[in-house]
TrEMBL record, chains A, B:
Biological source species: Spodoptera litura (Asian cotton leafworm)
Stretches assigned to the Beta-hexosaminidase eukaryotic type N-terminal domain: 50-178
A GO biological process held by the record: ganglioside catabolic process
Keyword Hydrolase: yes
Cellular-component GO terms for this entry: lysosome; membrane
E.C. code: 3.2.1.52
Signal sequence extent: 1-20
Catalytic residues (positions): E355
Catalytic activity: Hydrolysis of terminal non-reducing N-acetyl-D-hexosamine residues in N-acetyl-beta-D-hexosaminides
Family: Belongs to the glycosyl hydrolase 20 family.
Protein's name in the database: Beta-hexosaminidase
This protein's UniProt keywords: Carbohydrate metabolism, Chitin degradation, Glycoprotein, Glycosidase, Hydrolase, Polysaccharide degradation, Signal
Length: 558, 558
């Protein structure tokens, strides 16, 4: 299997000193790779199976037919705008599924076949209603401790029950996924089903990077549609980086005027409000990241004074990370972050803190003087100094999330700071962080920029991060979840959706369902078949997810 | 750099016994990998550079401005429908480039800046005309020996000269690519340029596979647009295979009625006529492949009798390759191929002949009896027997192309049969075939289903197949070209275009330009920058090619 591509890869690795963000793996983990599927193989899609898999489900042989002119959602408990929007949205989803039937029935529908359905003893008639029993008033915005539990009972008059609007939203998605086309695409059916469901992890995120390539607002909204279908609940928006500054600030308009790729490639206040509201309606938080002090070159287009001058042989050769010795740096950060905090209602704020180019700091005589005056012997201490000054700038309004380097470099972290692990695949970083009583978001296994041949989702269907830690003294609940990361170097509007989906569906299921490893080990085909159905379902709802496995067909794609 | 994904890959290879179509590589070829670029790095796009690179080009500092209201194409020699269509098409291309200027000029256009252009001594005014001097009458259809040479001279009144309509088409594409946006997207400029250009190889193909996943007609037409932009001239249409039979036959309508994925997922006679004409207008041949005797399970939906029954422990367990012992097999092939020959005007017909599941043949007692009666000791002989009977069924109308197994298994091949090499990356198969005086199409290096991280086009920018053969006794001109192969296991309408482009642009340039390896070795950045411009150019012309390298921006994408 040695081929030219491997050889090229070796050569390229040799000449490649700049490869960003590739996690290392703990060799002992080989035994934890748990889905056995054959790449490029055809897997028959399931019918009406839910992705991610519900925690408890009983499905009966009896079934009902969907007729959009008969079926209705009814609010039996509390209600609110979020619920009303969801009812409108899912009414359209069900109507669209039914349209496939209408298109197919034009040519071939026969009364005889209708009768065949009607006389089948398992057929229980037309589905009439889903009663929605929301027992508590809606919360205004999703949050880390949001309640997503729900129970669903499908019969002629069906019911969905939850204490929380977020649980209702999850249940409505599950309900929509239970429908399937049958009898040669001539009927939309749903089986009698009882489900009790809840997520394993409260934080199930997707990172998007709008700095390496700009992503259109339409594409971000489409991403939120797909996240809802996969029960992911955090859009981690890595909005700016070295390459461009598309965030349009009202206080500092020059940041995007000078730093965006183009005046058309910015996110205005109106854009962000729209995205945040669209996400909230789907029970999804939008977590802003403004990465400091590294990954900030685009800030320097407007404000070069806040960046460090990098030296070579006594001469300035360019600009590097933020300059931690300048008060103006912190002032700009504070003012900008206040504006961002007003725009993003989430209780968390991601400050970045990864991959600081410390060589540049070390090359600069003023920085070295500053370090000497403050008795610092390493630039890691300077990084810690910088982050320790920046963290309190968030004030009471937001709690911080930072990449793991901030923890390891020794910044003074508030106890409620969450650390995002990305550098090692395996337990060791999580153990180090948990033992200091910080919460953890794990993302190392889910770097979607890692490509392999074929439908490579199984590379990301790896392990439940809480299960790989073998320690009774650690509080595993402090691993609050994980995140699929789609770094933007080689994705833009042309390929973003198809590259993310269904690959991100793998961590979405791991983080929601946390299936027993024994089950996973022996059910590769079942998982592949469910994902096959799920991809077609996404396609039918307008999300251009790429093929999951091998050869396949999806009727009714939008 | 060892990571989880490698580990998963190793595991998957272990459990994967069905992986199709992965070529092996000759280890000695390591030294021939010749483009040095850094994955994920940002490469600044060139301005008005042509892809694939012309053979001879002189570009001057002086330049002209494009004004669509002034500029016109004029026919000074022969003309025909193909030329008139091309003029219409490129008139729109130039108008669309200019629209980007109009959009940008609305906000910021200043008379001062106009004057700045007008007073620049290198500025020579507005481009008025491209005179098209076609010296011979148009041919009706492109062919293996088509003349694609042209010369182009850009000045106020520019001229494009060729003996052949096909050369004129190539030159018009080059002309369109010489334009670039300048002065902050406020002007479309073109430099004074002289080009003499011709292809290194007469056959520069792209294989599409419409059986593993159906591709819409719209997507195939878009692919032809992209091929024209990359000066590729053969669409190798692997139209049917095991998984589905989308070709709609008039003589045998049941083949697609039973064998297509869905009644909507077929190619009708009208669809094929449209595709063939669209391709011809762009100087692109459409080469049909009906792969026999393997890769034919979908034929069996309508005609199970032509397939071999495979046995296990004395019982029939399924259907395998075509049954070479049945006369009905050959009769169906002959009748179907006659119809296909009438529909596709190309002088070649691809008969496949790869990867025959000989285990099935060996399991069948009737096949074994037949072999014994004909004194055959191996199923390779049976394969040769089958192909030797099928090859003459093409009659005088088409010459055959076959995959390399047909050659190695010893079929009696007519001297004008072309052999397509796919199994080994390197010279050995080409040498074996050339020494038997057959022509060769080389495709092993260009399997686009081989994915790597980053903008991985450089994996396909490998070597000129004629240059790696170190033999004076062989006729290197018999290597007629090469082909990028996009097998369909994991591509469909959602990701096809973005996955093929710009990755197929790499072999397109190798096969047209055949740049000196010394040049290639030392100009990785230049190649990457030209491809960066080319991707944006494709985007602006409505082809959603994915990012070529690392972070980038494309203004004016459609």
């Amino acid at each position: 299997m040695l081929n030219l591509f491997c050889i090229v890869t070796v050569l390229v690795l040799f000449i490649n000193t700049l490869k960003p963000l590739v996690p290392n793996v703990d060799k002992k983990l080989e035994s934890l790779v748990i889905v056995k599927v054959i790449p490029d193989q055809q897997y028959p899609p399931t019918k009406g199976e839910v992705w991610p898999k519900p925690q408890q489900q009983i499905k009966e042989q009896t079934y009902f037919k969907l007729s959009p002119s008969v079926f209705k959602f009814t609010e039996k408990g509390e209600t609110c705008e979020i619920l009303k929007n969801a009812i409108e949205r899912y009414t359209i989803v069900l109507r669209d599924i039914h349209r496939i039937v209408c298109r197919h029935s034009k040519k071939k529908w026969k009364h005889a076949e209708t009768r065949k359905l009607d006389t089948n003893p398992d057929y229980k008639g037309t589905l009439e209603e889903l009663q929605i029993n929301l027992s508590r008033p809606c919360e205004a915005y999703p949050h880390m401790d949001m309640d997503e539990n729900y129970s669903l009972n499908v019969s002629a008059v069906s019911s969905l029950t939850s204490d929380s609007i977020w649980g209702i939203l999850r249940g409505m998605e599950t309900f929509a996924q239970l429908f399937y086309l049958s009898n040669g695409y001539k009927d939309v059916l749903i089986n009698s089903t009882q489900i009790v469901d809840f997520p394993r992890y409260p934080y199930r995120g997707l990172l998007i990077d709008t700095s390496r390539h700009y992503l259109s607002v339409a594409n971000i909204l489409k991403t939120l549609d797909a996240m809802e279908m996969n029960k992911m609940n955090v859009l981690h928006w890595h909005i700016v980086d070295d390459q461009s500054f598309p965030y349009q600030s009202e206080k500092f308009p020059q940041l995007s005027e000078q730093g965006a790729y183009d005046p058309s490639m910015v996110y205005t206040k109106a854009n962000i409000n729209k995205i945040v509201k669209y996400a909230r309606d789907r029970g999804i938080r939008v977590l802003p990241e403004f990465d400091v002090p590294g990954h900030t070159k685009s800030w320097g287009a407007a404000y070069p004074g806040i960046l460090t001058q990098c030296y070579e042989s006594g001469k300035v050769v360019g600009l590097g990370p933020m300059d931690p010795t300048q008060n103006t740096t912190y002032k700009l950060i504070r003012e900008l972050f206040r504006e961002v905090q007003d725009l993003f209602p989430d209780k968390y704020f991601h400050l970045g803190g990864d991959e600081v180019a410390m060589d540049c700091w070390r090359s600069n005589p003023d920085i070295l003087n500053f370090m000497a005056r403050h008795n610092m012997t390493s630039t890691s201490e300077l990084h810690a100094y910088f982050m320790t000054k920046v963290l309190p700038l968030l004030g009471q309004k937001s709690k911080p999330i930072v990449w793991q380097e901030v923890f390891y470099d020794g910044a003074v972290l508030p106890s409620d700071a969450i650390i995002q692990v990305w550098k090692t695949i395996g337990p060791q970083d999580m153990i180090a962080i948990l033992s200091k009583r910080h919460k953890v978001i794990y993302s190392s296994s889910w770097y979607l920029d890692q490509l392999s041949n074929g439908g490579d989702w199984y590379n990301f269907y790896v392990f439940d991060p809480r299960r790989i830690i073998d320690s009774k003294s650690l509080k595993l609940e402090d691993i609050v979840g994980g995140e699929a990361c789609m770094w933007g170097e080689v994705v833009d509007d042309t390929n973003f959706i198809a590259r993310v989906w269904p690959r991100a569906s793998a961590p979405a299921e791991v983080l929601w369902s946390a299936l027993n490893p024994q089950y996973t080990l022996s059910n590769g085909s079942e998982i592949a078949s469910r994902l096959e159905e799920h991809v077609c379902r996404m396609n039918r709802r307008g999300i251009h997810a790429q093929p999951a496995n091998g050869p396949s067909v999806c009727i009714g794609r939008i």
